Predict the 3D structure of the following.
Amino acid sequence: MTSYTQRYLNGDHETVWADLRGLGPVPDALIEDCTAVAAQTMQRVAVHIARLAARLTDLGLVPSGTLRTPPTAEDQAELDVLVREIGTVPLALEACLRHVGGVWFAGDCPALHLYYAGEDQYGAAAGILPDPLVLPDTGYLRYSWDEHRSRFEDDADSADDLTEDLADSLAEDLADDLADEGFVFDFAPDELHKADISGSTHDIPLSHRSADPVIHGVCGRPDITLVDYLRLSISWGGMPGWSFKADRTPAALDDLRVSPDF
């Protein structure tokens, strides 16, 4: 039987990822093969991100955050630690952190009708939220994971004044809660926050070791997965919100768009 990796390298990109999603939690026997597909995918994504970052800079993008934070050797080591601590990091997310790193295309770029600081966000774009691509780095995963754990640790500290038996019982309950609740990673700001409007986040539950996790909270795109969201973003020049008004896109966007090769 041909491996997923070989099929992917042969160009069967979308079908391979559909098959990997169909696995649900990835069996141990397939981890190596599926991890290799995820790595190949995100290495290609990283090339597109580098191209877009350079082109957006040429177009005059003034990012509202750090445009790119490519992964370092220290990030790789920290990610290894986080994977062990969390235990259920989806393969596409891990590969994205490992090979792509942080991306922040939100900001001001009038050529793309993209506005953030002190502008009428809805005026030039006639109500369109471009949803510029934002991806987290390993440092943000560490921050988010530690915040998740600290909520339970704070509750455990509050048990100090209780009787020993009650405190022990509460500690056991808190440990069970931490395991049962699962970790929901606030993966990126949502379309509103990217335009400096009060909004929410795009979230990825890390409840099991899937190949390609669903991103929750993406406006108009229920159940979209990470790989499909990246395909969409790259195909729309890093501004996937424009796909909702394809007939009204700014001319500068045409030169950024490509057909994804992943």
About this structure: The chain is about 45% helix and 10% strand. The two ends are 22 Å apart (CA to CA). Residues 173-179 have pLDDT under 50 and may be disordered.
